[in-house]
Model the fold of this input.
Amino acid sequence: MTETITIKDAKAIIENQIEELSKRNREPEWMTRIRYRALEAFEKAPHRDPVISEEELLHFIAKPEIEGVPEHIESIDDLPPEMKALLDRLGISEVEQKYIAGLAVQTDTGVIYNEFLKEWEKKGLTVLPTEEAVRRYPDVVKEHFLKLFRVDESKLTAYHTAVWNGGIFLHVKEGLKVPFPLHLFFLIQESALAQAPHIIIVAEKNTEFHLIEGCTAPILLKHSLHLDMTEAYFHEGAKGQLTVLQNWPEYVHTRPMTRAKIGKGARFINTTVTLGSGKSNIGDPRYWVDENGYVELNGILLGQKDFYVDLGGRMYLQGKGAGGINASKAVIMDESTVITRGIIQAEAEKTRGHISCDALLMSDKATMETYPGLISKVDDAQLSHEAAIGKIREEELFYLMSRGLDEEKATQLIVKGFLEPMLKDIPMEFLVEIRKIIELAVSGGM
Amino acid sequence: MLKVENLHVNVEDKDILRGVDLEINEGEFHVVMGPNGSGKSTLALTVAGHPRYEVTRGRITFDGEDITELGPDERAKKGILLAFQVPPEVEGVKIIEFLQQVLVELKGLDPVEAYDLIVKKAGELWFKEEDLHRYVNVGFSGGERKRLELLQAVLIGPKLLILDEPDSGVDVDSLSVISRKIEELHRKGTAILLITHYGRILEHIDKGDIRVHVMKDGRIVRTGGGELVERIDREGFGGIFEEVGE
Ligand SMILES: Nc1ncnc2c1ncn2[C@@H]1O[C@H](COP(=O)(O)OP(=O)(O)OP(=O)(O)O)[C@@H](O)[C@H]1O
Ligand SMILES: [Mg+2]
Done:
């Protein structure tokens, strides 16, 4: 870091970006006003990130793109050769390879799904890039945009809100049950602006859906800071699943911000599969759960190289009979560090919550810490937690090897098996890729 | 085929085996008996190549080759298979996928062939097809685990099968199935090293054919024919140990 970026400099840069975005998106004024409000909040908002200092954050803002990523990728052949080789080994389809290369941006995938989604739009399913939703459905967006966050909570929420771009808007109308998983790639942006997609999910009464976001293969990103924000609203009886698949390049810091309101009898299964070797990933999602509602936060994590992961998760069980599960399974390799600190707070009678954390340490330099938090404000809540941190058991390894599998194959089996029970809701085509990635990681081939 | 010479084994800083000699030739049937803690499982695990069992003296050869330093997977590839006294649970690994991989790697079958074979043989050991989609040994009863060990032996068809108490914790009917399978494998040419406490498992085996070794404190103190099994069943080890001055 050579020159010093002052907070004034950063604000000037953000302001430019806001102007560019509002023009590019032909944005209504109310949205641009939200951006400016966030810009104002940026200066005073606190910054408390354990990895990225305030100084570094200002640098990210001034220079969001990293060097060394090929400037012009016009075809898959322009990808770095090692990456291309890896994608071939994983058997990644061409469509997905394009996405990974940043070729298939939102608009491309929009085309793929277009015809199909039009049919479903008539039945009450709206899936749109968030920018487009802002123009087409201003009332619904206004009602749900930035309602679960405050701009001035932190510098990161303020910065995200000021420059958000990309992301999707999913709206499922009352009673509609979407019978197939919606798989959308929507993270990649062609612009030089920050990576800050904003996702809004509105599931009306008695709806059902499964949204899968991202992909399992490593993606080529130009940005080293990724700030996505998800706001999800589940009305009475809605059942939704959000599965996030991610495989970050080793220079990427991610700060996912997710919050959801879960209505009476609603259910939200929020699963994140993190397979890469990013730089750091810090998130603390929050869920407010009403009467007989249920939320499940599942984290599946493969920590490689010096990936630093700190996963929180707060569940406020506010209605009678509400339930929450925060479960994670981490395979921690190399010099990676994983910390989990889920909190479940029981605020109403007959609520139940459970936190579980399992970790498999694959190297002497891998670190795992877990701090489960259970808070009860009532006397009949059932709250529990369990944690198991360990290495591969010698007896298991010996057993598999005594059947003729070499150490690498036996280890792969054990590691895949360790994660397997958490992958129950992942569709087969992704499961196959996830398993291959685990195998490659275990044999040091990533 | 298998030759164990003056084998000394140390586990967790304790000398457990203190000079074991044992030779097993192609297709032979050997039985090892002895009180709890006498070193029977230690012998089995050492021959199979458990890394925690350190050979401090002596050696193990198989088909003329010194295998004392080989890893368990390489011993398996040479034709040695151990059916465990206490098979461990392997969370998340489905029996069918595991066995398929073993048959593909060890026997060169293609996965579909392997699948069909596994389902067929599983039936003979009273496993239903859906049982094969459970995780290896997870939540299995003692007796089920022993049947699963036998299933693996039947599928792999090793040159030398070491069975560590395949009869303990097994109900009468299962015992009969297991005993019959052992006899079948033996008939097809597999050499057997069977560790047991009771003669019942040998009900389908011709006693005239077997060699019996009695262990005490990490040594084989007596070797004889099938009559030793009946004698131990009847009167325990006391008399035998007295005769050999132990
Ligand atoms: N991994 C180990 N760590 C510590 N001690 C061990 C270990 N394995 C075996 N031993 C000790 O070695 C001795 C022999 O044990 P082994 O399991 O070989 O006996 P065994 O003859 O198979 O007994 P049993 O009939 O009860 O199965 C025992 O005293 C046992 O406690
Ligand atoms: Mg034993």
Observations:
- Residues 7-283 of chain A form one domain.
- The pocket of adenosine-5'-triphosphate (ligand 1) is lined by residues B 11-12, 14, 16, 34, 36-42, 52, 85 (CB under 6 Å).
- Residues 244 and 272 of chain A are 5 Å apart (CA to CA).
- The longest helix of chain A spans residues 7-24.
